[in-house]
Design goal:
The chain is an alpha+beta fold. The protein folds into 2 domains: about 180 residues, Beta-Lactamase, CATH 3.30.450.20; about 140 residues, Reverse transcriptase/Diguanylate cyclase domain (Alpha-Beta Plaits). About 50% of the residues lie in helices and about 20% in strands. Strands 1, 2, 3, 4, 5 and 6 form a 6-stranded antiparallel beta sheet that branches. A 5-stranded mixed beta sheet has the order 8-9-7-10-11, sandwiched between helices. β10, α10 and β11 form a beta-alpha-beta unit. The longest helix is centred in the middle third of the chain and has 51 residues. The protein is rod-shaped and about 140 Å long.
Length: about 400
């Protein structure tokens, strides 16, 4: 597809857009990722504080009695559970509140607020029975988590853990009796929906920021592609100007040499160099003015264009000298081209007096094995000299001695 229709390069557009999207996406995503982890750390700290508050309302002595199943009575269970139920009802964001005891590396439920009819909560809960073993986690959060709690530390899961009840971030704090003895621990669970509800607003900001970054990347890609196109267009335009003769719009010497080197690489059956020289350009300028001389030069350029094939190379080498280089052109074809040029030039009438001017032409034709441009140019120039010296307004073919 012609890129002029787009005024920019699609390849550059997508390359720069992707690069800008990666950079801007990183600028947006990395702080968001760090912020998300920071918010999770804040939530873990909050869960730990809630667990500590829950432990503070537990009657440590009553709970210690419940650790021995021989002491269990419904009244003792209800007495131990009641302050936790009030605490849970006052904190509707909490999903589960319970206490546990560790035996031989395993944890067992002691009391569970979900077992109370007095609990006020919006969640659908399933109560755990007294001394029901807790074996529902997919994996242990950390190998020594129970030992940490027993040593007096508040332990919060590193991340949301999955069990048969769902995904929860849980905090656990030790319970002590009135004599300071470790008497099990409290657990509070926050489900992942609580976390997601808090993250929803940040997610909207993240998506909006990412979308804005993508739009900016597209804009950067477009501007870079336009700049690349405009720069290349100006360079190409300057190059086209630099290889063209301003007066005739034919190739100049630089443009001709570049085109000829490409033509020689085609390995054609034969090559022809035709040099055209205006007869007495100085006399035209002196007698009729430089404007007449320039007009005649432009007419010669037009005559060349009308006399050659589309693939042939036409150039004004400077001053009054023109060149045609033709690949796949034998001697007969080169002579015919010269005759057409002479006829086209003779048909031109320049100036108010309709003066007729002419050109002289030298021709050299070579086979591929002998196609050296510098040598062919010298030979054609020698033939041109003979055309000049034998009366002008004619062509001469170079003949090797």
């Amino acid at each position: 597809m012609n890129k002029n229709l787009h005024h920019f390069s699609p390849r550059i557009f997508w390359m720069v857009t992707v690069a800008a999207a990666v950079v801007l996406g990183g600028i947006v995503a990395i702080p968001q990722w760090l912020s998300k982890h920071a918010r999770l750390d804040v939530l873990r700290s909050h869960v730990g504080q809630i667990a500590q508050l829950a432990a503070s309302v537990v009657d440590g002595d009553a709970h210690r009695k419940l650790l021995d199943p021989a002491n269990y009575t419904p009244e003792l269970y209800a007495q131990t559970l009641k302050p936790l139920v009030r605490f849970h009802s006052a904190n509707p964001d909490i999903f589960y509140v319970y206490t546990m005891v560790e035996r031989d590396g395993k944890s067992f439920f002691v009391v569970d607020t979900a077992a109370s009819d007095e609990l006020v909560t919006r969640h659908q809960l399933r109560a755990s029975a007294y001394m029901e073993p807790f074996e529902t986690l997919d994996k242990e959060p950390e190998a020594d988590w129970l030992q940490r709690i027993a040593s007096g530390k508040t332990y919060v899961y590193p991340n949301f853990m999955h069990d048969e009840y769902g995904y929860f971030l849980s905090g656990h704090t030790p319970i002590y009796d009135s004599q300071g003895r470790y008497s099990g621990f409290v657990g509070v669970d926050f489900d992942i929906h609580y976390y997601m509800a808090q993250e929803a607003s940040f997610q909207a900001i993240y998506i909006g920021t990412l979308a804005a970054a993508l739009l900016i990347a597209l804009l950067i890609g477009y501007l870079a592609a336009r700049y690349h196109y405009d720069t290349n267009h100006r360079i190409e335009e300057q190059y086209r100007i630099s290889i063209r003769d301003e007066l005739t719009q034919l190739l100049n010497r630089r443009g001709a040499l570049v085109s000829i080197s490409k033509a020689l690489a085609l390995n054609a059956s034969s090559y022809a160099v035709i040099i055209i020289d205006v007869d007495d350009l100085k006399g035209i300028n002196d007698n009729h003015g430089h404007a007449a001389g320039d007009l005649f030069l432009s007419k010669v350029g037009e005559a060349l264009r009308q006399s050659v094939r589309d693939a042939d190379i036409c150039a004004r080498l400077g001053g009054d000298e023109f060149l045609v280089f033709a690949a796949g052109c034998d001697l007969d074809a080169a002579a015919e081209t010269a005759r057409r040029i002479l006829g086209k030039v003779a048909a031109q009438h320049i100036g108010p007096g309709r003066y007729n001017f002419g050109v002289s032409i030298g021709i050299c034709v070579a086979s591929p094995g002998q196609a050296d441009f510098e040598a062919m140019y010298r030979n054609a120039d020698e033939a041109l000299y003979k055309a000049k010296s034998s009366g002008r307004n004619r062509y001469v073919v170079y003949q090797a001695a």
